[in-house]
Amino acid sequence: MINWNDLKYLLAVAHNGSALSAARALKVDQTTVQRRLAELEAHLHLRLVERGASGYRLTGAGRSVLVAAEQVAEAVARFERGCAELAQARILRLTCPEPIADRLARSGFLDRFSERHPDFRVEFVLADRYIDLAAGDADVALRSGDTDGVLVGRKIADSLWAVYASKDYIQSHGAPAAVNEIAQHPIVAFDHSLSGHRLSTWLDEIAPDARIAARSNSVLGLVSGVKSGIGIAALPTPLGDGEPDLVQVLPPVAELSRAWRLLCHPDNRRHDKVAAFFDFVETEIAALRPVLTG
Question: What predicted TM-score, i.e. pTM, was given to this entire model?
Fold first, then answer.
């Protein structure tokens, strides 16, 4: 049978005019182009190209088969696009904070989803910003805090933040007994790029003159700062409670509490993979709450 891949070399020579230019276009060496053309000619029992002073040109037979070769190339490209779209349709892209992705993976949640829906596969989309669901950058989101009013979904759990300090810090410096004592301690806070975050707003209100020991542009950076012992910080409870070296010195702060929600764009809500994920999460809420809340 003919090796349809050899048609690429005929088309490349026809479009580029020389074996060298065809080789560059295909990212192979020139001898490969010449060899594959020779193999194609031998298989078809036709002379398709001839070499002249200015490069390669198609013979009469080469011109006769060129249109059919281009049709085959277009059909193969359509086939590959269709396969890629089918494969993509089976992948559910889930965006959530990086620490939550780790906790979801370790909780067995993804394994249970795969057992229930073996035709679908979850792929995480992680970033230090909100991923745009309306633009199609992800299919569903697990998100806390303020969110785009266009999105639809449901509440899964409470998003709680409490104040933490390391054991070493407490041993050396003590811990605040109430919110109004936070200003007496060095703070690990968000940097100015996150000045609009509710944590930044809350700290400006309750401890405007507190000494800032470190700033970070991520929640994981806050956790690292507190673990180092240089100061205290409010952290999401699943992260703070999950660190053996940290102690919750003040209970969850009402001003920082929000809701964890499962969200998607309304245009995607009825897609098979999105509907399957929403239905599955509905049965998993009791198992998800400790993952999201701690």
Answer: 0.66
